[in-house]
Amino acid sequence: MSDTPKGFPLPSSLKVVPGTEAAQAAYPYYTQFVPEDDAKFWFYNSMHFPEPMHHFDMITAEAAYVAMGAFNTRVHVLPTAKGVDHRIINGRVYIGGIAVTDPDEIAERVGEFQQRAFYYYENWDRLYGQWKVKMKVLIADAQALPTPSLPKYEPLETTHTGKGVAANHDLLKIYQQQVEGYHRMWHHHFEFLLLGYGAYMTLFDFCKKAFPEITDQAISRMVAGMDSEIFRPDEEVKRLARRAVELGVDGHFTDNADIAAVLAGLDAVGAAGKDWLAELETSRNPWFEVSSGDGFYHYHRSWNDDLSMPFAALPGYIEKIKAGTNITRPTAQLIEEREQLVVDYRELLDTDEDRATFDQLIELAHRVFPYVEGHKFYCEHWYTTLFFNKIREFGRLLLGYGFFGPDGVEEDVFHLTQYELESAIVDLMLAWGIGGDPRGPTYWPPIVAQRKAAIAEWGKHPTAPALGNVPDAIDDPAINMLWGITRENLDRWLDDGSENDKELKGFAACSGVVEGTARIVKSVQEIGRLQQGDILVCQVTNPTWSPIFQKIAAAVSDIGGSMSHMAIVAREYGLPAVVGTGKATTMIKDGQRIRVDGGRGIVTILEDA
Amino acid sequence: MASRKKKTGVVSWFADVGIADRPTVGGKGGSLGELTQAGIAVPPGFVVTTSAFEQFLGALEARESVRDKVEALDPDDLDAATRLSQHLRARVMGEAMPPEVETAIMQAMRELCADGQPVAVRSSATTEDAEDASFAGLQDTFLWVLTPQDMALKVRECWGSMYSVESMIYRRKQHFPELGVAMAVVVQRMVDAACAGVMFTRSPTTGDKSVIVIEGAWGLGSAVVSGEVTPDRWVVGKITGDITVRDVSDKHAKQVPAVGGGIIEVELEGDDRTTACLTDDQLMGLRDVGRKVERHYGKPQDIEWALDKQGNILLLQSRPETVWSVKDAAAKPVAEKVANPLAHVMNIFGGRK
Q1: A543 or B146: which carries more pLDDT confidence?
Q2: How many cross-chain Cβ pairs, A to B, lie less than 8 Å apart?
Q3: Which chain A positions have a beta carbon within 8 Å of B244's beta carbon?
């Protein structure tokens, strides 16, 4: 069917990059495009998965969509949308919503939804309190899982206690428990997510109707200054900066320093240095369990695993403290400003009815906000980094048994799918049990090499932002809220060719006009390249990058809607930002002078580097 | 005959009048008085009250009837209206001003402009309808009027505009009794503006009350009001101060005072054309003034402003915004009333069309 003049390529027209067919085929069968998929609309989930997926990392997509689907479709029963379907090609994850269009079914689902969702809203604080307990238990369970290992002989204890289970069985148990925990975490994640965003969006929707020209920033400031765990890691870095100054060890922190050398230097400098290191330990547990990325890839390491982010931020904070600048998150000021804004906007409403609605929606947004921002710390950050580290332990174990060849590394484990990894574990269990040799060492190295090459190759091929014919309306609240995909956006993507190559449009995330040097940052390891006053240009920004917000003049991202975490945090910090430009990291070159107009959502390339 | 209170003088200073004095000082005069009293920076001035007009008309009527002739006019007979207009306007220009009126207003201008500063002379109508810009002929404005003699002449021209064809036909169609129709004239010290323009304390395009739209161009505001120059345009958050729209236009010309009085248009070249005429600080200053005026009146305003060469913000006029306030009266609440406030989330979750 080619009756639509404007549309994206059909899934069937997408070709697997030559030479990567085997790597493509290794993804689960239910994630492969089939001819029937041409009838549906798909978009590239570059917000969560901006880079080609390692085979193991697909578990994040799978577990998240399993859980999100269940909550949307069957737990909260969203009236017009069920879950999202996903496919993968050339390492890129495409997703498509499953809409409910039959009016009778919608009506039935409305009844179900109201019984369920409203119960959550009405009992939010209690249920959210319970949620945090559940998450802490889940995290503690994961932390308690032993490191997988195989002794030469079972300890005598196995005999004396009549344990009746040998060590190879524990490998399977640990692995399956860890995978089960990861899935469970994603269920918890979606227990509140859509409801939280939905309540927040309801306030946005009301404000936009009442005040058609209000900025997103003004609305979000009415909900600013709320307490949320996600702000805490940055506060801890500030605290450490303050302690460094108080202890007189601030001279140890410089830009682009070798972190191991700094730590060793502090240890050698005497009591003050040791005191600071003790403070660092306090902050690390648990606040540095935050991911430097958004936690969706195994290589998004926690601050505890890679101290680059906090150490990139420390010199700037130290400098500000010494200059007498107050760097504490201005909570009291944000609250005062928030309350004044609410009063002032309320006064502009015309009717008592609207004022009553406004009061209710503000209250509801305040109720849900701590979850909207706070859940990330427990789910995408803490649990996810724990999870990938456990998989790394399996990588180390398999590496030790030669599964990745003589030149292998433990990270090679991420080239196996979660199901292949289980089979490799069983291979090892079997070999250890029978006293023979595992087959893995000859089987896996060529496959890992092939997949490594495929990921590298796929990274060179840009992929279509969407596939299939654009639907007339996108009535899926999840897709609107989480991905910022609207009919207007898609039309903009389609119009791409005619656009000016010096100007990019995105969501106006936080107002302010700034000119400066563009610094393209593709991973947290490159964070150190940012100089004071630079403009950060990245694929996706992340709330845990906030420590470097003090350093930069503005932020631009490829991906993200006005409700993305980046946008929320930028508004909180008053940092001019344009998100969801689609192609900032490809159009803008490192070192170019650019202008960011955060109020209008426009980025202009001023001159070449 | 005239039921006018005896004590109303020929001249009323801005500082002494308010909006309640509309019947004697007109809407514009009352508003400028009101702003002055509210402590908002308005170039000082006075109003030539309707009492002055009545005295002048009395002299005219003594010679030959005026009001009766207008009242007898058939609004559909354009020829008759044109003939009557020519006749009456010639009489207004030919009749000597009553000496006590002339002396009073010229003395007032000498007081106002002891330094020889020029004035602007504007008609100030007394009826609500006359605020409507479409009521042509009652919106006469004379800028950069240099001398008291010239000012008196312009006052007389404002009076004469009462008898323009459009104005008379409008009154007849509305069946306004001529006896109640009178005109005041505002005489105001004039600023040689560095830049000037208009400000709406709600969006003219969406009616949004949370933004202020400011338009401005170099020189006198007349260039913006008349549409001769495309002004720079900003949208500013009324509450937040965020500047969300900045449209700096190519301002090809500006209007400036002419040496012999009146105004002339000067072509602009180079950077002047494309440089924004207001800084962010000045925009914030205008926003503060706009909010203050709006609060004073309790409703959104349509404001004319100027920035003098020292950068002081001065208000030249403020009147209630009319287009959206009419729509407001018929508007429904943004959100329908619901038994359970949580039902509002259905706007996001769907199933409620």
Answers
A1: B146
A2: 127
A3: 213, 215, 508, 511, 599-600
Q: Is B350 within the bounds of a domain? A: no
How far is the C-alpha of A112 from the C-alpha of B110, rounded, in Å?
Answer: 80
Which pLDDT score, from 0 to 100, does residue B6 have? 40
Residue A477 contacts B where some CB pair is shorter than 8 Å: yes
Chain-chain contact of B347 with A205 (C-beta, under 8 angstroms) = yes
| Residue contact B209–A511, C-beta within 8 A | no
Write out residues 58-77 of A within 8 Å (CB-CB) of B: none
CB contact under 8 A, B352 and A198: no
Residues of B in contact with A205 (CB under 8 A): 347-348
What is each CA distance from B284 to A294, A347, B289, in whole angstroms?
39, 20, 9
**Which residues form the domain of B214?**
193-321
Q: Does B335 touch chain A (CB under 8 A)?
A: yes
Low-confidence ranges of chain B (pLDDT < 50): 1-7, 130-131, 133-137, 353
CATH code for the domain of B162: 3.30.1490.20
B214 plus B141 within the same structural domain: no
Q: Give contacts of B333 with chain A, Cβ < 8 Å.
A: 350-351, 353-354, 357
- Determine, for residues A206 and B235 on separate chains, whether the beta-carbon distance falls below 8 Å: no
Question: Mind listing the pLDDT tens digit for each residue in B324-340?
Answer: 887 877 777 787 777 78
Of the three residues B121, B156, B189, the one that is the final residue of a domain is B189
Say how many domains are in chain B. 2
**Inter-chain contact B348–A205, Cβ cutoff 8 Å?**
yes
Taking only residues 228 to 287 of chain A, the set having a beta carbon closer than 8 angstroms to any beta carbon of chain B reads none
pTM of the shown model: 0.82
Q: CA-nearest residue of chain B to A201?
A: B348
The answer to whether the CB atoms of B340 and A118 lie below 8 A apart is: yes
Q: What pLDDT does A93 receive?
A: 96
Residue B341 lies in a domain: no
Cα of A598 to nearest chain B Cα, Å: 9
Test B351 with A110 for CB contact under 8 angstroms.
Answer: yes
* pLDDT at position A496: 58
Contact (CB<8Å) A345/B239: yes
Q: Is A594:A604 a contact under the CB 8 Å cutoff?
A: yes
By the 8 A CB rule, do B14 and B31 touch?
no
Give chain A positions within 8 Å (CB) of B206: 212-213
User: Where residue A559 falls among pLDDT bands split at 50, 70, 90?
Assistant: confident
Count of residues making up chain A:
609
Asked if B63 and B116 sit in the same domain, the reply is yes
Residue A202 and residue B245: Cβ atoms within 8 Å? no
Q: Are B108 and B219 in a shared domain?
A: no
- Whether B72 and B141 map to the same domain: the answer is yes
HEC readout, chain B:
CCCCCCCCCCEEEHHHCCHHHHHHHHHHHHHHHHHHHCCCCCCCEEEECHHHHHHHHHHHHHHCCCHHHHHCCCCCCHHHHHHHHHHHHHHHHHCCCCHHHHHHHHHHHHHHCCCCCCEEEEEEECCHHHHCCCCCCCCCEEEEECCHHHHHHHHHHHHHHHHCHHHHHHHHHHCCCHHHCCEEEEEEECCCCCEEEEEECCCCCCCCCCEEEEEEEEECCHHHHCCCCCCEEEEEECCCCCEEEEECCCCCEEEEECCCCCEEEEECCCHHHHCCCCCHHHHHHHHHHHHHHHHHHCCCEEEEEEECCCCCEEEEEEEECCHHHHHHHHCCCCCCCCCCHHHHHHHHHCCCC
- ipTM of the complex in this document: 0.82
- The pLDDT tens digits of the residues spanning A146-188 come to 999 999 999 999 999 999 999 999 999 999 999 999 999 999 9
Q: Which two tokens stand for residue A32?
A: 């492969």
| Cβ of residue A81 closer than 8 Å to a chain B Cβ | yes
